[in-house]
Specification:
The chain is mainly beta. Helix content is 8%, strand content 27%. The protein contains 1 helix and 5 strands. The longest helix is centred in the middle third of the chain and has 7 residues.
Length: 84
Amino acid sequence: MSTPSPSDQVPVCWDGGDPVSIAVGTPWLTAAQMLGHTIPTGCLYGSCGACEIEVNGHVVRACVSSVRGSQGALKVEAATDPYW
């Protein structure tokens, strides 16, 4: 299996919306902004957890993660944290 190049596109569905093609390697904070969403941030180093989102059911920290290649659409939801 080959590694996706940054020019590859993947469909991203945010909170059940229509899929939008986003380039693989795009930081999640940038992808969210492109899709009209704001992700709360705290430390911007991945340690505080304020920016957690769920991508296909897996929690990722958006400030230190980027869009990865996928066989299908990536389904994104805001993670719920009772402390933020």
